[in-house]
Amino acid sequence: MAETIKPLAIVTGASTGIGRELAREAAQHGFDLLIAADEPEIEAAATELRTLGVQVDAVQADLSTEEGVDKLLAATKGRTIEVLMANAGRGLGKGFLDQDWSEVRKVVDTNITGTIYLIQKIGQEMRARNAGRILITGSIAGFMPGSFQAVYNGTKSFLNSFSWAIRNELKDTNITVTCLMPGPTDTEFFERGDLMDTPVGQAKKDDPAMVAKTGFDAMMRGDGDVVSGLKNKLQSAVANVLPAAVTAEMHRGMAEPGHGKK
């Protein structure tokens, strides 16, 4: 008897953190996986995820570039993509004028350019068959002017807005778009973004498995967005009513370098 073909989920930024946990959620719900990241650790993630009894293919590619995204798309080998979880992202701390321009550009190209290129390519295929689910990892950071994370917060503000816009464009289809908006989560993000000497870098953070489950469940329900964690829900609500100058100063208190615990 032929084995039933499982639906396929693509997860980007899946080598560690929220992305890896999103991939685990998908595997536990019976999806085969195509996972991607720009680092060799993606192979170790694939090995671990295969123990859950699904097919897992891994692609190491620079998803800030069209070439990297095209490499990922080619790895689908024509399979129908039921779920896209566009999670790949980069952070960057310190004052904007002190940041290296190549690192600034990498944040913008990873978080925005590569992400929306991938969503457009896969979204067009989903529209052609009128089916599919898309999860975009935004952030509650997108609600606040990000003093000392200006570029990162700006990219997340873009994604939060973009998600709702394309959800509305697709409202008469069977395609759902969900935006997961986590707060500070216990991943390698803060170390990689040079944020360890800040209050937010040293504070207690959310469990990535909990964040991923919250986002995955919201996507499967077809929700428009979800903020993970009560504290983050309160923070996002406050950010929506306070003036931008006030929230920028609040963010400075969390992200200004050299103000972490001694």
TrEMBL record:
InterPro entries with a match to the protein in the record: NAD(P)-bd_dom_sf (IPR036291), Sc_DH/Rdtase_CS (IPR020904), SDR_fam (IPR002347)
A Pfam entry, by short name: adh_short
Alphabetical keyword list: Oxidoreductase
Keyword Oxidoreductase set for record: yes
Family of this protein: Belongs to the short-chain dehydrogenases/reductases (SDR) family.
Protein name: SDR family NAD(P)-dependent oxidoreductase
Organism for this UniProt entry: Pararoseomonas baculiformis
UniProt lineage: Bacteria, Pseudomonadati, Pseudomonadota, Alphaproteobacteria, Acetobacterales
